[in-house]
């Protein structure tokens, strides 16, 4: 069933690619929406049958390249299942939003179906080479989305920058994987075997270099300062659906890699260098918020807030390494918060980027100075954007509060100074979102020249169907998080126990 969840979108992609050219565009778009809905329904089935205390489940393990110790090994636990569910929900929302797409629809749909398979595949991969294959293929799919459906001539340059940056990071990641495999006896890339064997225990410099390779490769994809510079142009030039998937799913691949690979496979080195990750995470939080505050482009502002939110994740996992061997509850709380933050950020930032697409569709620009008094023209759009922005601030009642409260509480036990500095990121983020909402939605009416003289349209049904469920899911997690925490907490405890060994 897990393989079906992973490869169902790819099967639909191949089917559409081979279908006659006479198939209408609207049929291609509806096939994507139907496939995404079916995939989400399968994930709900996985969730219902999942035992939170059962460890890794739904496993399949078959030889792939036996001579190199590479296999097709997949499975889910409390770290990966929530991310698989979030991924499928976000792709369904993106499919509904894209029912409006008119440019080369078949190719567009096939690329997103391909991206859904590689995204789910990465989160369920339990072999390092399989993880790397999906990691690299995601770069290819997103490169063509940005270059082919982005805004204007700068889209190709942004796509190339994105590809070169992240491909370089993936090469560093591959070096780290090879280093892990060579240290194991016998050589293997199986993640669970490597966790059990802990082949780099006591390896000192060698283990530190492997962690450096993994850290650089994952930090580029996350992204964190100073590896973040590809992110703003990629988001600014990408289509709204591409930005939603890039921020909501692809950024989580790097953050997930820290929790799934770097922490449990290199526990000694992670403890030794945990403070470095704390510092990088804190700098990313504050820097991302300050630079976002200086933006006049609404979409670019949201892109920089992603650097801030990913910084919180790095702060949490770094603090869990510093705490290793001292406070089991605090480090488990920090890692749980990091995983919930991945889910929360995917839902809320995905919704925000889809809403920026609505803004650009109506006014032809993301410049905040071009708009004023939008709430009188499009009250539903204003309400959805306001809810997404306030939820992103971490106010109680939404998923962001659950995530950030756990991160800050778990990190405070050992990193009081860094956590206090990171709190300023919340204040700055609140300032920038409130400024944007006041500027665009309140005050006298002012619209860009590209907007119709009669005013802008409010959210249409497909746009509401795409964004409201994402905000609704964030609300459910914020009000009744137990269903998610019950799944994540046992897996988080397992990771922190591995780090402390």
From the structure above, extract its key features.
501 residues, mainly alpha, two-stranded antiparallel sheet, 19 helices
Overview of this protein structure:
The protein contains 19 helices and two strands. 74% of the residues lie in helices and 3% in strands. A two-stranded antiparallel sheet has the order 1-2. The chain has helices at 2-18, 25-48, 81-97, 105-124, 128-149, 154-183, 191-197, 205-221, 231-237, 240-265, 267-293, 298-322, 328-363, 374-377, 379-392, 399-412, 416-441, 461-479, 482-500, and strands at residues 57-65, 70-76. 58% of the residues are buried. The chain starts with a helix and ends with a helix. The protein has 501 residues and is mainly α. The mean pLDDT is 91. The longest helix is centred in the last third of the chain and has 36 residues, at 328-363.
Task: Specify the helix fraction band.
Answer: over 70%
Q: Write down the oligomeric state.
A: single chain
**Gyration radius from CA atoms, angstroms:** 22 Å
Q: What proportion of the residues form beta strands (DSSP E)?
A: under 5%
β-strand number: 2
Helix-strand category: mainly alpha
Strand order of the largest sheet: 1-2
> pLDDT below 50 for ≥5 consecutive residues: which ranges?
none
Major beta sheet summary: 2 strands, antiparallel
- Helix and strand pattern: HHEEHHHHHHHHHHHHHHHHH
- Averaged pLDDT, please? 91
Report the principal-axis shape.
Answer: globular
Cα separation of the termini? 34 Å
Total of helices: 19
């Amino acid at each position: 069933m897990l393989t079906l969840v992973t490869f169902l979108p790819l099967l639909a992609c191949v089917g559409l690619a081979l279908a006659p050219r006479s198939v209408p565009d609207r049929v291609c778009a509806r096939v994507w929406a139907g496939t995404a809905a079916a995939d989400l329904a399968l994930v709900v089935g996985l969730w219902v049958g999942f035992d939170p205390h059962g460890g890794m489940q739904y496993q399949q393990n078959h030889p792939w390249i036996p001579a190199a110790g590479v296999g097709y090994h997949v499975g889910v636990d409390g770290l990966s299942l929530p991310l698989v569910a979030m991924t499928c929900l976000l792709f369904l929302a993106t499919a509904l939003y894209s029912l409006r797409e008119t440019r080369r629809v078949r190719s567009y749909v096939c690329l997103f179906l391909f991206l859904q398979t590689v995204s789910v595949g990465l989160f369920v991969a339990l072999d390092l080479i399989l993880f790397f294959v999906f990691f690299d293929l995601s770069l290819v799919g997103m490169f063509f989305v940005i270059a082919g459906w982005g805004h204007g001539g700068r889209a190709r340059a942004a796509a190339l920058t994105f590809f070169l940056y992240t491909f370089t990071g993936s090469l560093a990641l591959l070096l780290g994987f090879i280093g892990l495999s060579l240290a194991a006896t016998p050589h293997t890339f199986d993640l669970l075997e490597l966790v059990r064997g802990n082949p780099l225990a006591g390896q000192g410099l060698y283990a530190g270099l492997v962690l450096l390779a993994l850290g650089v490769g994952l930090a580029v994809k996350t992204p964190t300062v100073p590896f973040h510079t590809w992110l703003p142009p990629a988001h600014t030039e990408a289509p709204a659906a591409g930005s939603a998937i890039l921020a909501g799913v692809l950024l989580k691949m790097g953050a997930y890699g820290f929790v799934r690979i770097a922490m449990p496979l290199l526990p000694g080195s992670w403890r030794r260098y945990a403070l470095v990750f704390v510092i990088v995470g804190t700098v990313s939080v504050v820097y991302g918020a300050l630079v976002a505050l200086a933006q006049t482009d609404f979409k670019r502002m949201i892109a920089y807030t992603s650097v801030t939110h990913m910084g919180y994740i790095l702060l949490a996992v770094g603090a869990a390494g510093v705490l290793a061997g001292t406070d089991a509850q605090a480090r488990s709380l920090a890692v749980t918060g990091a995983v919930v933050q991945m889910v929360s950020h995917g839902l809320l930032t995905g919704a925000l980027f889809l809403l920026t697409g609505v803004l650009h569709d109506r006014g032809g620009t993301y410049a905040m100075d071009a708009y004023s008094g939008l709430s009188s023209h499009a009250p539903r759009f204003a309400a959805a954007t306001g809810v997404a922005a306030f939820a992103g601030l971490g106010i109680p009642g939404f998923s962001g509060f659950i995530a950030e409260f756990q991160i800050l509480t778990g990190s405070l036990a050992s990193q009081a100074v860094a956590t206090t500095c990171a709190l300023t990121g919340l204040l700055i983020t609140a300032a920038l979102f409130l400024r944007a909402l006041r500027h665009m939605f309140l005050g006298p009416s002012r619209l860009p020249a590209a907007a119709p003289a009669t005013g802008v349209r409010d959210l249409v049904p497909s746009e509401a169907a795409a964004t409201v469920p994402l905000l609704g899911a964030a609300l459910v997690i914020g009000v009744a998080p137990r269903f998610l925490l019950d799944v994540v907490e046992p897996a988080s405890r397992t990771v922190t126990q591995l780090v402390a060994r």
